[in-house]
């Protein structure tokens, strides 16, 4: 968990990622309750409307579901949905910059694959 | 309460403090009102609170003008950076006067804050330190529970711990009951996470009114070699740029993904920095 949020990225995204990380790391399991909008707002000293936006997006993504009057809970297949989503991001966030840097260093694809394999051992 | 600002101008002798400003604040949100010294923020807040008249144009609050209008004045509490209270009054007299004035006054919250900030009810205002006078201003502003509560640099002389307490209680109160809070401050990095919407004034004009998270998403710093960056920003809205040793960083408004797709290094821009770059550009 992060102690403070960054002011240079949307706060609702950081709240969203916080919950997603907790689910990915099995800290919050399917069927368990996640902190409320006000709990996030108080903890991070952020605007509650902003915290709500992050949580609502996770409801739209079917990562969370609402139980009226009780709170927000993690859905059964939340982790599966997140893995699929993160695989797509993995390509953009890791493979593309990796290739770009490799090109700068004149590392060709063959050598790059060799390096990835070396890491597996 | 709805705030409708229409063609608002204020002239002090030779100086145009506000130049034909128009905008609306429709919902009870926490608004950050930012800008350099002399941008017209305080003048705007004083007109909004019905304390002074505009030279031209008007502010309507739920359709009514605030000047000399008790019904509207009871719904607005403006806490300024100093001289909020008569010097000869005691702290307890000030609290009493505000309690009579504001129908929404929360006596319990006032007591809690007086205790929190160690305010002596029997002390006269003129004997209070700057920080203590600010603490009283904050107490009055929060406890007024006015549907429109305005803080104009309310914490001169307050230490970091006391400011933190102010932010915490402000947030608690806002969570419990939504109201329009306008917070004008130069300590932007301390409070920017509280803002839902940001307004930036520059030389008497409104240069920006936007959701805080939209700004965080739509302003970015892009870095790379000068050639790469210059090629990339040629058709972009550039706020500011700087170069060193063949490398260049440009601050741009627009979609971050464009720059990421170009393989350039991309970073977000904190709201404080955005305010500085925006107001420098306009002033230059």
Order of helices and strands of chain A: HEHHEEHH
Give me the number of helical elements of chain B. Answer: 11
CATH topology heading of the largest domain in chain A: Arc Repressor Mutant, subunit A
CATH superfamily of the largest domain in chain B: P-loop containing nucleotide triphosphate hydrolases
Q: Enter the CATH topology name of the largest domain in chain B.
A: Rossmann fold
Fourth-level CATH superfamily of the largest domain in chain A: Winged helix-like DNA-binding domain superfamily/Winged helix DNA-binding domain
Q: Give the amount of beta strand of chain A, in percent.
A: 5-15%
CATH classification, class level of the largest domain in chain B = Alpha Beta
The secondary structure category of chain A is mainly alpha
CATH architecture of the largest domain in chain A: Orthogonal Bundle
Most residues in contact, chain pair and counts: A-B, 24 and 27 residues
The CATH architecture assignment of the largest domain in chain B turns out to be: 3-Layer(aba) Sandwich
The count of domains of chain A is 2
> What radius of gyration of chain A results from the CA coordinates?
18 Å
Radius of gyration of chain B: 21 Å
Number of domains of chain B: 2
What's the arrangement of strands in the largest beta sheet of chain B?
A: 5-6-7-3-8-9
**How much helix, percentage-wise, in residues of chain A?**
55-70%
Protein name (chain B): ABC-2 type transport system ATP-binding protein
InterPro entries (chain B): AAA+_ATPase, ABC_transporter-like_ATP-bd, P-loop_NTPase
GO molecular function (chain B): ATP binding; ATP hydrolysis activity
Keywords (chain B): ATP-binding, Nucleotide-binding
């Amino acid at each position: 968990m992060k102690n403070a949020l960054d002011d240079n990225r949307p706060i609702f995204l950081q709240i969203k990622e916080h919950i997603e990380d907790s689910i990915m790391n099995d800290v919050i399991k399917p069927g368990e309750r996640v902190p409320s909008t006000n709990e996030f707002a108080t903890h991070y000293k952020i605007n509650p409307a902003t915290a709500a936006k992050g949580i609502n997006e996770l409801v739209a993504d079917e990562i969370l579901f609402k139980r009226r009057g009780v709170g927000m809970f993690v859905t059964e297949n939340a982790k599966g949905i997140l893995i699929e989503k993160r695989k797509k991001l993995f390509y953009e966030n890791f493979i593309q910059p990796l290739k770009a840097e490799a090109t700068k260093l004149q590392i060709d694809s063959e050598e790059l694959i060799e390096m990835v394999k070396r890491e597996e051992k | 309460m709805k705030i409708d600002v229409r063609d608002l101008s204020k002239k002090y002798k030779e100086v145009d403090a506000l130049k034909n400003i128009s905008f609306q604040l429709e919902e009870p949100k926490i608004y950050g009102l930012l800008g350099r010294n002399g941008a017209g923020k305080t003048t705007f807040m004083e007109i909004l609170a019905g304390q002074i008249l505009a030279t031209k144009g008007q502010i309507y609050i739920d359709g009514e003008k605030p000047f000399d209008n008790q019904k509207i004045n009871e719904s607005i509490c403006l806490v300024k950076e100093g001289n909020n209270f008569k010097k000869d009054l005691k702290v307890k007299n000030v609290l009493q006067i505000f309690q009579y004035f504001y129908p929404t006054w929360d006596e319990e919250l006032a007591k809690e804050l007086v205790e929190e900030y160690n305010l002596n009810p029997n002390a006269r205002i003129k004997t209070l330190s700057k920080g203590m006078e600010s603490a009283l201003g904050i107490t009055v502003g929060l406890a007024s529970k006015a549907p429109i509560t305005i803080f104009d640099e309310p914490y001169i002389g307050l230490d970091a711990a006391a400011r933190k307490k102010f932010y915490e209680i402000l947030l608690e109160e806002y969570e419990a009951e939504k109201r329009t809070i306008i917070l004008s401050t130069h300590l932007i990095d301390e409070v920017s996470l509280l803002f839902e919407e940001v307004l930036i004034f520059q030389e008497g004009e409104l240069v920006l009114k936007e959701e805080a998270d939209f700004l965080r998403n739509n302003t970015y710093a892009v870095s790379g070699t000068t050639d790469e960056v210059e090629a990339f920003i040629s058709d972009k809205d550039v706020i500011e740029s700087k170069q060193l040793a063949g490398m260049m960083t440009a601050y741009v408004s627009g979609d971050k993904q464009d720059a990421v797709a170009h393989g350039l290094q991309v970073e977000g821009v904190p709201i404080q920095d955005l305010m500085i770059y925006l107001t420098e550009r306009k002033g230059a």
